[in-house]
Amino acid sequence: MKKLMTEWRNFLTEGEVKFSGILKAKPEPAIIAEIQRRQKELPEDAILLASKDLHVTLIHQDFLKPYRSQMKTMKFDNVPAIVLDTGIIVKTDSSESVDKKSWVINLANQNEMRDYVTKLMKRLGAETINPEPERVFHISIANLTGNPHDSVR
């Protein structure tokens, strides 16, 4: 019983983790509903991302290429809950030929997500267990086109 009390979060039904080149966590319906509520606060130039496109990138595809075959069969369990931070942040990028602008919500549990990524990289036998130490885990909720690939990275 004591172990159950200390590991209760492992038994919650959270969003699922999927590998599709990137490793992403899909939010559960309650989180999507909260995001949709916040999307209503955005300015006119913000084109909302569809619910099906809402996700947290855990590990970018560049770091997972050597592990593609392992990733396709790996089971992702003990996924941390997606905990939204307060507020919406505007991210911009003018480094390419076209200006990009995205509206994002950061996660409040950055360390928990980083620990999850570290555990996965260890399971893969990776030399680099923290492939993106500068990553701020977030969910892009809108950009200038509505295409999730047009969001600021």
Strand content: 15-25%
Quickly give the CATH architecture.
Alpha-Beta Complex
Enumerate how many helices there are, as a single number: 5
Largest sheet: 4 strands, antiparallel
Number of domains: 1
Count of extended strands: 7
Shape: globular
Give me the Rg, rounded: 16 Å
Helical amount: 25-40%
Q: Would you give the CATH topology?
A: Cyclic Phosphodiesterase, Chain: A
Q: Tell me, what is the CATH class? A: Alpha Beta
Structural class: alpha+beta
Neighbour order of strands in the largest sheet: 3-7-6-5
- Identify low-pLDDT runs: 1-14
On the 0-100 scale, what is the average pLDDT?
88
Order of helices and strands: HEEHEEHHEEHE
- Tell me the span between the first and last alpha carbons: 43 Å
Compact overview of the structure:
The protein is about 25% helix and about 20% strand. The chain is α+β, with helices and mostly antiparallel strands and about 150 residues long.
Description:
By secondary structure, the chain is of the alpha+beta class. The chain has one domain: Alpha-Beta Complex (Cyclic Phosphodiesterase, Chain: A), CATH 3.90.1140. It has 5 helices and 7 strands; from the N terminus they run αββαββααββαβ. The chain has helices spanning 2-6, 29-39, 61-64, 68-73, 110-124, and strands at 17-20, 22-25, 47-48, 56-59, 89-93, 100-106, 138-143. The longest helix is centred in the last third of the chain and has 15 residues, at 110-124. 22% of the residues are buried. Mean pLDDT is 88; it is low at 1-14.
